[in-house]
């Protein structure tokens, strides 16, 4: 008989969840799944303005730590890991669900983005994952799991995703290289490429509703995805069910990524849109 470990419980596992903004955040769906299987959770919030939205959710998770983490503020990221080391002494799970791009740069053509805007987006959306991985490594002495969130616009051109496409492509490449860096330490590194979910971050994209509606219409399942489905996919990557998986970009998008579709304007011009 096959020796398959059943991840009935994550009891005793220590998990850091970053990127919860409200109860529509993808990170919130994953955090709920972690809590359901009894992981001990630490949660970060962006700033004092965001704290009233995140604090009630942290209470629902029975989060033992609620910590400020503005990636643009010097020292705050390091302070989070210092606190985890002090309180827990170790870390088993790291969830990175943070992205940012200046609005003016995001809403324009890639070729027109400013150097400062591009570097800011890369810093918060990509470099922060590499930096978190570096800080988490010494706390994962017995192995662990890291994963981040990406989007289909990293691999194919998606209208209005603009500068975030190259940034997310860099993040996905980082996942592969980190998987190799950490493989011998039994630390696995993966990413979820999420389909249409109405999040605060997604609302910053021009014509986001039209983009979501288009993807829902033409995905094989004919719909978007739920936070519960994101949480389930997260649990797969965080549990022993995926013990042989690392360096993977795991699509949770109702199958949209397998469809070769014309540009939405082409459909309109042909009378199909």
Characterise the protein shown here.
There is one protein chain. With 273 residues, this protein is an alpha/beta fold. It has a single domain, classed as Rossmann fold, CATH 3.40.50. 40% of the residues lie in helices and 14% in strands. Strands 3-2-1-4-5-6-7 form a 7-stranded parallel β-sheet, sandwiched between helices. Strand 1 (14-17), helix 1 (26-36) and strand 2 (40-45) form a beta-alpha-beta unit. Helix 1 (26-36) crosses helix 8 and helix 5 packs parallel to helix 6 (164-182). The N and C termini lie far apart (53 Å). The model has no long low-confidence stretch (mean pLDDT 89).
Question: Which short descriptors sum up this protein?
Answer:
273 residues; alpha/beta; Rossmann fold; 7 strands
Number of helices: 9
The assigned CATH architecture is 3-Layer(aba) Sandwich
Q: Which class best fits the helix and strand makeup?
A: alpha/beta
What share of the residues lie within helices?
A: 25-40%
Number of beta strands: 7
CATH topology-level name: Rossmann fold
Rounded to an integer in angstroms, the radius of gyration calculated over CA atoms is 19 Å
So, the CATH homologous superfamily?
A: NAD(P)-binding Rossmann-like Domain
Which segments are poorly predicted (pLDDT under 50) over 5 or more consecutive residues? Answer: none
Number of domains: 1
Residue share in β-strands:
5-15%
Mean pLDDT: 89
- The separation of the N and C termini measures 53 Å
Shape: globular
- Element order, helices and strands? EHEHEHEHHEHEHHEH
